[in-house]
Write a structure and sequence with these properties.
Largest sheet: 4 strands, parallel
Oligomer: single chain
Strand order of the largest sheet: 3-2-1-4
């Protein structure tokens, strides 16, 4: 397919993303399947961080969200976040 003038003068750039409350990197996993590059993630639990490091060794782990300063985060096009689910993860905490 022949490129038009716009395509020749505006090279395509891969979208990037950051993931808050990252867990085991579900959002980054979906993003790479859509051509989006995960750049950083924020998670505090050791096991999910280990899983994320195995899945995405180049994705930077930023640590605790309460200690992040947005001015120092690498810029991204998309920020996603999984809601912390501790209150709904245990059956005894589920509403009756």
């Amino acid at each position: 397919m022949k490129k038009g003038v716009y395509e020749m003068t505006h090279p395509t750039r891969k979208l990037t993303m950051g993931s808050l409350f990252d867990g085991i990197s579900g959002f980054p996993l979906a993003s790479v399947r859509c051509g989006i590059e995960p750049i950083w993630a924020s998670e505090i639990e050791p096991f999910p961080i280990l899983v994320s490091k195995i899945r995405f060794p180049r994705m930077e782990q930023m640590g605790d969200i309460t200690k992040l300063n947005g001015a120092y985060l690498p810029p991204v096009d998309i920020i996603c976040g999984g809601s912390p689910c501790q209150d709904s993860a245990w059956p005894e905490c589920a509403p009756d």
